[in-house]
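step: validate -> pass
step: tokenize input -> pass
step: predict -> running
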Amino acid sequence: MPKLQYADLSSNNSITCCTSLLSGTPQIKYLNMSLNSEIQFSAGAFDGLDSLEILDFHHTRLIGIGYPSCLSNLKNLKYLDISFSSITFFNIFSFGGLSSLNVLKIAGNTFHTVYVLRYLFNNLTNLEYLDMSYCHLEELHPRSFKDLRSLQMLILSGNKLMTVDFLIFSNLEKLTSLYVNKNSIISISLDVLQKLPTNLSVFDLSSNPIECSCAHTDFILWIIKNQKVLKQSDKIVCKTFSTSSDIPAIDFNIDSCVYNTRLTVILLICCVIAVTVLSVVAYRFQFYLKYCCILLKGYKAPKLQECPNDAFVIFSSYDEMWVMNELVENLENDVPPVHLCLHMRDFEAGKSIAANIIDEGIMGSRKVIVVVSQHFIDSAWCRFEFELAQSWIVMERNANIIIIILEDVQERKTKKVLGLHKHLRKNML
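step: predict -> pass
step: emit ->
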């Protein structure tokens, strides 16, 4: 039958294909061998059948197909249906040589690895229709469709895909229809949605477990605004724990999310302001806070300890030379000697300054000597030590503060230090 162009061998039993079976039919263009129980492919299965344009093997168990030499000589093949044929694609060159292929249906088959999908469709630049539904796909390589520049319809229904991120890296400029219904998609990021093919007119997202929450408002808003593109938009439902209460995503109350977002933003701003104010206050009044902590410690501290020092000297480090040459020299070398407590000499190393002031200085001394100068007035630590000494002495109910005026200080400046002006009017040396 040298002029035979159409052959239907569907719904038979086991067949060996195809050169020996179709010997002498060089002009055959259409071959339907679907719905058979099993077909085995011999070596060079399609030799001499270069005119084939349509091959249909759907719902037939195929043995031997998927190797690079099997279909490689079918340069005129435009339609290939091998869906539900129990094929596991191992070889990345399974469709090598099919440069004219327009329609490829491989639904219901499997792929050995994602790596195979990375190269399986290489050079199918004329492919317009691709059906990969029910292939147990959990993910797709980002570059799986990079060569399919003519692809118009992509069917990925009934898989286990959780994302369509592969669309970002695909060169699907002519894609008009995309079916990802019956997958496991919870949400699609705004970045992916903004990079969908510009010609897309049909996008089927139905029967996916869409998570309708305030965390995915961008996606829900996109669904609401693009109902004309979305196929069966009423079947894009918000997945809940109870299937009976699932609601369409287009009916999700976005306004509640806006209110909650505004409330969250307001609370966040209030928290930031509160933390900022507290930080400023803590920094501004840090000595007073330490002062209160030490007072609290003082109230709880045992009062039976002996005082090893005769006097604790409060002075600015700028006045250290006078303190050492005059005060220490005359008092500690006198008879009997007066033992003084000086911060740079007698404070315990590794202990906090505030703890040293109360433990070594004020609690460890019978009296407090205050060397008043302009530097003393300007020193925050000196003011802190003086105020702490006053409070401690009030608690002990004795007046053991001795004021030494090292230089003239304006009266208005002495009022900067709590209680100093009062002491200057009563006790001066």
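step: describe -> The longest strand covers residues 365-372.
step: cleanup -> pass
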